[in-house]
Amino acid sequence: MYSCKICGKEFEKKQQLGGHVLCAHKNNSINKRYFDGSYIYKKITKVCPFCGEEFETATNKKEKTFCSVSCSNNSRERKKTEKEKKKRFCSTCGNELSEKNCRKVCSYCLILMQKKRTKKDLFMTRKNWQSARSSIRKNAHDVYFKYNRKENKCKICGYDKHIEIAHIKAVSLFEESATIAEINAIDNLIALCPNHHWEFDNNLLNVKI
């Protein structure tokens, strides 16, 4: 007699047992093949890395690492919390970085790096011209609104729905050795609406600023 190790049902022939396993227990992970009434995969004893308890598992492709699903989930959560609590330090000054800071340097060192960074260095490190100009434009926007938080309107017409930060002295007129801090100095920035910004860049705006 051959008995099914999953449900305990007995059969006279081995073929009947195999057909029963394939039909009744087809969704089981280690039940599809039998050899002399036992599983074809060998069972081994392992130790759960989370709780330390011993458990049996089969040596197949889906070999278990943890004894239960709860241990697996708890281990994943523990690794996640340990990763979040891991301290990060500035690569320049060595001070501890905040959790919100995703950079390798602190905000103080970043400001110093931007002040010392030249126009040539920026255009050399960026992928293309547009990326470098975009970086200068963003920095100019941050510098302007740091000193002029309430002046959100065009200096010419007073339009306040959408303004752009323009350079009084164009970026292209600065030398390669000029720093970004010199280019984006607050005295070299002015807020204009898109129309007046285009006119100012194309020398069509006859207004002394």
Concise summary:
The protein has about 210 residues and is of the alpha+beta class.
Protein described:
- By secondary structure, the chain is an alpha+beta fold.
- Among the domains are: 40 residues, Double Stranded RNA Binding Domain (2-Layer Sandwich); 85 residues, no CATH class.
- Helices cover 36% and strands 12% of the residues.
- It contains seven helices and eight strands, in the order ββαββββααααβαβα.
- The strands form four sheets. Strands 1-2 form a two-stranded antiparallel ribbon.
- The longest helix has 19 residues.
- The radius of gyration is 35 Å and the shape is elongated.
Largest sheet: 2 strands, antiparallel
Global Rg? 35 Å
Helix content: 25-40%
Name the structural class.
alpha+beta
pLDDT < 50 runs, ≥5 residues: 29-40
Number of helical segments with 4 or more residues: 7
Q: Estimate the mean pLDDT confidence.
A: 77
Descriptive tags:
single chain, 209 residues, alpha+beta, Double Stranded RNA Binding Domain, two-stranded antiparallel sheet, two-stranded antiparallel ribbon, 7 helices, 8 strands
Task: Chart the SSEs and their pairings.
Layout: E1 2-3, E2 10-11, H1 14-24, E3 34-35, E4 38-39, E5 43-47, E6 54-58, H2 69-85, H3 107-116, H4 119-125, H5 129-147, E7 164-167, H6 180-183, E8 189-192, H7 194-201
